[in-house]
Amino acid sequence: MKPVASQPEATTIEAVFREVYGQAVATLGRIFGDLTLAEDAVQDAFLVASDQWPARGFPPNPAGWIVTTARNRAIDHLRRSDRGRELEELINTTDRLGTETRGDEEAAVPDDQLRLIFTCCHPSLRQEHQVALTLRLLGGLSVPEVARSFLVTESTMAKRLVRAKYKIKAAGIPYRVPAGAELPARLGSVLSVLYLVYNTGADDLERESLRSAAIRLARTLADLMPDEPEVAGLLALMLLSEARMPARYEGGSVVLLADQDRRLWDRAKIEEGHAIVQACIRRDWPGPHQLQAAIQAVHCNADSFAETDWPQIVALYDHLYVLRPTPVVALNRAIAVGEIDGSEVALEALNDLAPDLDGYHLLHSARAETLRRLRRFAEAEAAYERAAQLANSEADRRFLEHQIQSLQQECTH
Amino acid sequence: MSQYLLSTYSVEGEVRGGPTTPEEMQGFMGRIVALETEMDASGTFVFGGALHGPDAATVVRVNDGDTIMTDGPFAESKEHIGGFYVINAEDLDEALVWGAKTAEATNHSIEVRPFRATGRAQA
């Protein structure tokens, strides 16, 4: 049967695509200074690959093959497009680059990708454009895929990408890794884009492609910037969250950490995440992502919810609050404090935060849970209902509706 | 090398954060002179200036050969360009560095905008 026979090869091209797409777009973008041309050429090269590779076998260096084929395609395209003088100039440039990098392709490519990440996440672009560019150009996600994940129509997402690429070109956003004093803020904007992509993926089990794109890019970034512990911290944070994804949803509803079947957690990811957190602790240069990863590591270490090392978690939240004094951090800290000092104390802290976080569903679901433990059922139900109104994912809403139902049964007993 | 417009906007004639006392004015002019000296030394400065308010503006239109003049600015807006620089910069990052220096010297937000074309149009 033909489809069965070609199946493994198709998945291998798929794997090459995931691994190589962003690198190839980055390299072509650097050579031609035009991201749309780069994207089109790389897509063409993959079409040629899916045509030729199954019959002729894989080339020894698939990444190099894709880059070379895409480069030739781009030159063909330019030759056809009646831009004589510009073309000549470009061919001279690419020939020069070609001789410089020949035999050294592997080393040249990763730096291109790093440059492109910083271009896509340039602070002169609005964040929704940064996210769209990163997923499309580096993550290799299709326009419909990106559009679906961010709940906008395909044409809206296509326009967003066109506008963002226009601004990169027109405004002259450079294609380079920022140096020195600029780096911390610029890296911060890259990390928030990757974390936003991951979290959007984590809202829905189906959005696996977003989560894996975020993890893949964080891994690339961690390899390319080994001296930045916050990059490692973000990678660990994602791995430790991802490890628990198999237990996080059941029947389309969220399962709370306390109720998750910990046997479903992915041990390999937990171990990798732990190793990174340990390495960060040895470096002793903590930052917000590293601290959040450390908190997740403590959760993953516990064999049951009851055995969680809550004092350690509160200490980590205290440290995080010093670096990021936000109401959301205070909320998470209050929940952890409640596990040590009891629900009365937790409720008081949550009530103090209510004015700042009134529009945030997790404040109301935490209050509801705490009120329920205090057997103040009517108030608990009102808080669950408020949370359900504000929840932004179907899985959260379904979870909250289950809570309201079980609460109603609990009060009648 | 590209060229960028760095512009500052005034709202109803007021440049927010602008100097109000003679001492502030002196400090302000000192910062502007220093900024422009630095722009000159690095080959960044192309042209620049401060504009009179929109009340001093006239819009000129030609309709069937008749020239029609209208008192006031073109845009029915509360915000109008108060002053600008045209600068040379390698790329947006370099232009943004000058934008930040200008914002610091003027104590006012600066819009950084790339030129699509500069110089004389070619037929």
What descriptive keywords fit this protein?
heterodimer, A: 413 residues, mainly alpha, two-stranded antiparallel ribbon, 2 strands, 77% helix, disordered N terminus, B: 123 residues, alpha+beta, Alpha-Beta Plaits, 4-stranded antiparallel sheet, two-stranded antiparallel sheet, 2 helices, 28% helix, flat
Poorly predicted runs of 5 or more residues of chain B: none
CATH architecture of the domain at 2-51 and 80-114 in chain B: 2-Layer Sandwich
Percent of residues in beta strands of chain B: 25-35%
Major sheet strand order of chain A? 1-2
Structure characterization notes:
The complex is a heterodimer of chains A (413) and B (123). Chain A is built from 20 helices and 2 strands. Chain A has 413 residues and is an all-alpha fold. Chain A folds into 4 domains: 103 residues, no CATH class; 117 residues, no CATH class; 99 residues, no CATH class; 78 residues, Serine Threonine Protein Phosphatase 5, Tetratricopeptide repeat (Alpha Horseshoe). A two-stranded antiparallel sheet of chain A has the order 1-2. In chain A, a hairpin with a 2-residue loop joins strand 1 and strand 2. Chain A is elongated. With 123 residues, chain B is of the alpha+beta class. Chain B starts with a strand and ends in a 9-residue tail after the last strand. The relative contact order of chain B is 0.31.
Provide the fold topology:
The complex is a heterodimer of chains A (413) and B (123).
Chain A: H1 2-32, H2 35-56, H3 62-80, H4 84-101, H5 105-120, H6 127-138, H7 143-149, H8 154-171, H9 183-202, H10 208-224, H11 229-243, H12 245-248, E1 249-250, E2 253-254, H13 267-283, H14 288-301, H15 310-323, H16 327-341, H17 343-353, H18 361-373, H19 377-390, H20 394-412
Antiparallel strand pairs in A: 1-2
Chain B: E1 2-11, H1 22-41, E2 45-50, E3 58-63, E4 66-71, E5 79-89, H2 92-106, E6 111-114
Antiparallel strand pairs in B: 1-5, 1-6, 2-5, 3-4
Helix pairs in contact in B: 1-2
